[in-house]
Amino acid sequence: MAAICVSQIRAVGPAAVASKRRVALRSRAAVKSRAVATAATETDEVQKVLKEGNVTVEYQRRKAKEMVQFFKQQDYDQAVEESQVFGFTAKNEINNGRWTMFGLLVGMLTEYATGVDFIDQIKLTISVLGIADIYD
User: Fold this and answer.
1) Gene3D superfamilies this protein is in (predicted)?
2) Which one of 22, 62, 115, 127 is least enclosed by Cβ atoms within 10 Å?
3) Torsion of CA 45, 49, 52, 58, to 10 degrees
């Protein structure tokens, strides 16, 4: 679940990530305030059920679902806080290295096919695109 959330977060821009972080922090604060507010009623409910001796499978199932939901929300909140979209991340550096290797390979193959070295290829590209007239 956390891996899916992180990949979804990395697929969006910084504004959306900041927005998701604010939402996650608000939801965490809301969960904590609800937990404090309902702790007394839940404690009373649990004590009542235990005194009566009516711990049913349905009651256990409901409590288990609540626990699963709570821990999934905690995992999601942690993933949002720890995610880094921009900057020096391992994934970004691997992609930069791959693109650099690809560019050098294309430059070497073009040099082999045309006989024009890599520097002259760059000069020719700049001249053809009209950026500067530097090719002799």
Assistant:
1) Chlorophyll a/b binding protein domain
2) 115
3) 140
